[in-house]
Design a protein that fits this description.
- By secondary structure, the protein is an alpha/beta fold.
- The protein contains 13 helices and 10 strands.
- This is Glycosyltransferase involved in cell wall bisynthesis.
- It holds the Pfam family Glycos_transf_2.
- Keywords: Transferase.
Amino acid sequence: MSEVLVSIVCNAYNHEAYIAQAIESFLKQKTNFNFEILINDDASTDNTAEIIRAYESQSPDIINAMYQTENQHSKGVRICGINESRAVGKYIALCEGDDYWTDPYKLQKQVDFLENNEDVSLCVHGATIIEGRTDKPLYKVRPADRSKYFSTEDIIFGGGGLFPTNSMVYRREDSVVRPAFYYSSFVGDYPLTIFLSLVGKVYYLDEIMSTYRYAVPGSWTEREYLNSERRINHYKAMERMLAGVNDYTDNAYASVIRKTILKDKIYLHLEQKRLNELAEKDLNDFYNELKEKKEIYGFYKGLSKKEKLMIHLNRFSPNSLKVLVKIRRAFS
């Protein structure tokens, strides 16, 4: 194969029901450049590895797979790092083995933009989120209603769900050496996105070009994020990571980081039904921030009517909230 421009990085673990669809979506990419597909199977206990081997034997010049004999994730190893260290392309494109791309021109569109805009370090796009077990469409991730640049402040406050991981295409040279804060959390896409926004510009293409499966059996979301205790640990890890961003940037983003940590605490308190424990000043400050930026971040969009009511009561009539809590406890 002649020079490779893009390295597709795909990590798989027990994805026998999905990995073929992912690989097929890679192979269907129509480009005027060469790309390689790097797959790392993290010692799957199902038939994932066999499926990957079959595709690798059919396309040995494009697919380069690794087959772990011991699960590396359980040892705390950054799986993405294993794969990316093998990449030779100018650009890295991410997609997990249980997700897939839906636009055959996705890579071409993103690479064209990056080639024409050397100050851009990361290009992302929209995606459809589907339920992991049934493939039922849930919603679309569109962080904006038009193509646009996102600032570091936007990305910090937007959180890990702002951009779909399988939409990310970035310059390999920009991500070789990563700061300490990248390694301080359980997930890598959010801190990586923050870091890339510090290296260069981040551009969002307002097109739906991939599908992300939510809560696939055995996935990180199901194991960690849907478990209440582990979710608390996740929030704490995110707070540590953001503190690391503060240190790395000499507090240049201290204000938005404080608001982001407060936002995460609101989510956590909502889940634990302890919203009234938040400091009134902090909640008022955050409420005012929402009024200024809700058209960008859509914080309320993800809340139920009950949760919205709790926030407003806590801000405008905290005594009423306490009364409602007491009434509920009396009849529960």
